[in-house]
Amino acid sequence: MWTQGDNRQAVEGLAVSIHFSSEMPPLLALKVRDRARSVAAGLGLGLERTIFEVDVNDDGESSSTETGKVFLSADGISEDRRAAGHFHEMLSIEDDKIIYRTAAFEGWAVARERFVALMVDILSQVKEVMELRTIRLEVRYRFFWEGARSDWDFSPLLRTNSPYIAPFVYETSEPWHSNSGKWLPRTSTKARLLQTNVQANHWRNSFNDRESAGLTMRISVEDRIRSSGIEVSDSAYDMVFTDLDKLHEDMQAASEEIIVSEFLRDAGSVEAK
Predict the structure, then answer these.
(1) In sequence order, which residues have a C-beta less than 8 Å from that of residue 197 and are 6 or more positions away?
(2) From the CB of residue 10, how many other CB atoms can be counted at a distance below 10 Å?
(3) Per-residue pLDDT tens over the stretch 79-127
(4) Where are the beta strands (DSSP E) in the chain?
(5) Kind of pairing, strands 190-205 and 47-56?
(6) For residue 272, what pLDDT is reported?
(7) What angle do helix axes 26-42 and 108-124 make, rounded to 10 degrees?
(8) Burial status of residue 139 (CB atoms within 10 A of its CB: 0-12, 13-18, 19 or more)
(9) Residue 181: pLDDT above 50?
């Protein structure tokens, strides 16, 4: 039998990332991090971490350079789990990208609202300077198999005719990995790429601290902005918010082509129906 980790929600996390075509100038990077610190604290992401890049020369000597800041909310999470990377929400400001992640998924509407609340002021700092390159939406699912791996059966969970899953996975009891991707219809200003990454394996179930067999799935939809003269403008950055719903629609459609509909509804997925 397939279950969700907390018996309620199969979505392990959702992320929205914005990449620029180059690194921010140093003064702009400082300005953006300061603004992000204020906005994040006001929305409950009060923990701060520094991102370093470590370089090692030919003599084995190392040096580190600060390349960004991470702002987190992790109330109620133990220090050990925080050190292992567990959090509720995260905002990462790096020299060439900005990433929002949530591990406390409560539906698309809530995640979108949080992203917009965090990003409106931050993006206003960069939109007249930085060239927008990609907008990416990603969701991660995790399902647990209650039973021996030799008995696992993917037919109640995965559609047997899914164009995104290799056919051999329904006939093996061994761990497996299946990747796929395709270009969705393009426009004059952007190309949209859909990618899926599905794997079945063993891991430790953090909810009950037991070894479990199960399946993880990552689905991402990414807009790659073409050079068209709009990459540094209000219209380009407005597109970040207007395109989110379109990215989500394509992601949801892919989810429904992979996960059996009844189980998708039971899982409280990206958008329960």
Answers:
(1) 177, 178, 179, 217, 218, 219
(2) 27
(3) 776 666 767 889 999 999 999 999 888 889 999 999 999 999 999 999 8
(4) 2-4, 11-20, 47-56, 62-73, 89-94, 97-102, 132-145, 176-184, 190-205, 210-225
(5) unpaired
(6) 41
(7) 140
(8) buried
(9) yes
Q: How far apart are CA 189 and CA 169, in angstroms?
A: 37
For 113-158, the three-class secondary structure string (H helix, E strand, C coil) is HHHHHHHHHHHHCCCCCCCEEEEEEEEEEEEEECCCHHHCCCCCCE
**pLDDT confidence bin for 188, thresholds 50/70/90:** confident
Q: Which residues of 119-138 are buried (b: 16+ CB within 10 A; e: fewer)?
A: beebbebbbeebebbbbbbb
More confident residue, 269 or 158: 158
Q: Which two tokens stand for residue 112?
A: 């979108």
Q: What is the DSSP letter of 86?
A: -
Q: Which two tokens stand for residue 246?
A: 């379109």
Share of the chain above pLDDT 70, in %: 85
DSSP line for 208-227: TTEEEEEEEEEEEEEEEE-S
Residue recorded with tokens 């209000």: 234
How many whole angstroms separate alpha carbon 40 and alpha carbon 117?
9
Would you say residue 64 has pLDDT above 80?
no
pLDDT in tens, 7-34: 456 788 899 999 999 999 999 999 999 9
Confidence (pTM): 0.86
- If DSSP codes are grouped into helix, strand and coil, which group holds residue 263? helix
